[in-house]
Write a structure and sequence with these properties.
Layout (H helix, E strand, L loop, with lengths): L7 E6 L7 H14 L4 E6 L1 H4 L6 H17 L7 E5 L5 H10 L4 H5 L2 H6 L10 H15 L5 E3 L5 H18 L7 E3 L34 H9 L17 H14 L3 H7 L5 H26 L2 H30 L3
Parallel strand pairs: 1-2, 2-3, 4-5
This protein binds adenosine-5'-triphosphate and magnesium ion.
Length: 332
């Protein structure tokens, strides 16, 4: 049994574009708030970014931007082990091993796969889109992770990880820790402001419905003020009847910590204009703060030093776990 200080928390983001408000509220914020309570790991999931072809120069920039953004969002590199996934080669082998614990049916049932494979190019569905969940399982299991803070869209993949760990342990003996998912009660699925039935995705690229942490604050304000709502003129949380307003309420609640009920009460009798202005103020306050810090952390030498040290520390634990798995499998 681990005591509390030995408990491990881990999360990661794909460098598949600039980070969004959804990435911050759904995953990064929840990690940062708890990083002192756990042995903490955060990584840039760069192997997950090549599940579909990418421009190498753009990818390189995206990886560095993502790291600088983590720091700007409050990740403390003294407290937390920060690393680039592809620097720790054990992810590749463990990903391979976990893929072979997985059934085709399990992967075909993954909601993210079903959603993302709807918009395929002329060459059909990329294999990477199909097989990335077991690589994600490897990412988690290598560090004996206890808790994985993620947005709602990734819950299914963490649950698959639990299943795969359990299956492996049953077959080959106790090898992996079975992790729990942590989903924030508010802000776990931020929706596109122009299309509030769809999740806000960083890989959608620039569009009026996605708020990027690097967006100019004037643009952020404009995006929020033009968010799609409804004709009712009542500020009330009802995800199916009022997805646009409910999304804005979630954004305000997750940004400021005020409860949904308190927001509904405070805005009783107010119009959408007043409400949107307050959401815009809160989000611009948050993002403005992150942007100021981001400028400080953009230095490539500083980032490199943090990543090199992070990878060294991560590799020690990853190698131990991989070794255990190889012994269990009879590979060693
Ligand atoms: P992509 O479009 O490349 O899939 P993404 O925005 O979905 O990008 P990921 O890198 O897939 O981001 O996920 C990083 C983390 O952010 C995950 O924990 C995921 O659950 C969380 N997350 C992503 N989008 C949202 C969102 N709209 N609301 C809340 N959490 C989110
Ligand atoms: Mg995603």
């Amino acid at each position: 049994m681990k005591n509390n200080e030995q408990k491990v928390m881990l999360t990661g983001v794909r460098p598949s574009g600039n980070l969004t408000l959804g990435n911050y509220l759904g995953a990064i914020k929840n990690f940062v708030m708890r990083q002192n309570q756990y042995k903490s790991y955060i990584f840039v999931a760069d192997l997950h970014a090549i599940t579909s072809p990418r421009d190498p120069a753009e990818l390189k920039t995206a990886i560095n931007d993502c790291m600088a953004m983590y720091l700007a969002c409050g990740v403390d590199p003294e407290q937390t082990i920060m690393f680039r996934q592809s620097d720790v080669l054990e992810h590749g082998i463990m990903g391979f091993i976990m893929t072979f614990q997985t059934h085709m049916g399990e992967l075909s049932r993954m909601t993210q796969f079903k959603l993302k494979s709807q918009n395929v190019g002329k060459n059909g569905i990329d294999t990477g889109l199909f097989v990335y969940p077991p690589l994600m399982s490897a990412d988690i299991l290598l560090y004996n992770t206890d808790v994985v803070p993620v947005g709602l869209d990734q819950q299914q993949h963490v649950e698959l990880t639990r299943d795969l760990a359990g299956r492996f342990n049953k077959r080959y003996g106790d090898t992996f820790n079975e992790p729990d998912v942590y989903i924030a009660p508010v802000g776990n699925k931020i929706l596109n402001l122009q299309n509030p039935t769809e999740k806000m995705n960083k890989s959608d690229g620039p569009n009026p419905g996605t708020i990027f942490l690097m967006d100019d604050l004037k643009l952020v304000r404009k995006k929020i003020m033009s968010a799609v709502t409804d004709n009712e003129s009542v500020i009330r949380f009802d995800e199916s009847a009022k997805p646009g307003i409910s999304n804005l309420i979630s954004i305000l609640a997750a940004t400021t910590g005020e409860s949904i009920e308190a927001i509904e009460k405070r805005f009783a009798g107010h119009g959408y204009g007043d409400f949107k202005r307050e959401v815009a103020d809160a989000v611009c306050g948050l993002i403005g703060n992150i942007q100021t810090k981001y400028q400080r952390f953009k230095n490539p030498d500083v980032l490199d030093a943090i990543l090199t040290r992070g990878a060294e520390r991560a590799r020690i634990v990853a190698a131990e776990t991989l070794n255990r798995a190889r012994v269990a499998l009879g590979l060693k």
